[in-house]
Amino acid sequence: MNFTDDEIQFLLKKYIKDKEYRRVYYNNKYKTDEKYRNYVRDYNKKRYEDIKLKKYIDNGGDENIGKELRAKNLYTYFIRNDREDYFKEQYNSEYNLINI
């Protein structure tokens, strides 16, 4: 499939325009939409703790202790952000693990 120079230029301009739109849209959304902002931060914190747990287990750590540490770190994060109720709803097993 060969493209002409005009088609290539059209595709490049469209790509640049779409990329700029997404950059502006998500930049604005992250700064103004609190729900989206919390979602992104929670997702990143959960991912960070999951990776940290995997490294702990790979280095010979006990899995139960690692899961407890992960739960405590997540709980501390949500307490610090005044969202303890959300933690109890979304991370029920972690919450029960801490309170046993």
In a nutshell, what does this entry contain?
The chain is mostly helical. It is 85% helix and 0% strand. It is built from five helices and no strands.
Give a structural overview:
Helices cover 85% and strands 0% of the residues. It has helices at residues 5-32, 34-58, 63-80, 84-90, 92-98. The radius of gyration is 21 Å and the shape is elongated. The N and C termini lie far apart (64 Å).
Termini, distance in Å? 64 Å
- Overall strand count: 0
Shape: elongated
The biggest sheet amounts to: none
Average pLDDT number = 93
Query: SSE string, helix = H, strand = E?
Result: HHHHH
Helix percent band: over 70%
Which regions contain 5 or more consecutive residues with pLDDT less than 50? none
Percentage of β-strand residues: under 5%
Sheet/helix structural class: mainly alpha
**How much is the radius of gyration in Å?**
21 Å
Q: Number of DSSP helices?
A: 5
How is this fold's topology laid out?
Elements: H1 5-32, H2 34-58, H3 63-80, H4 84-90, H5 92-98
What tags apply to this protein structure?
single chain, 100 residues, mainly alpha, elongated
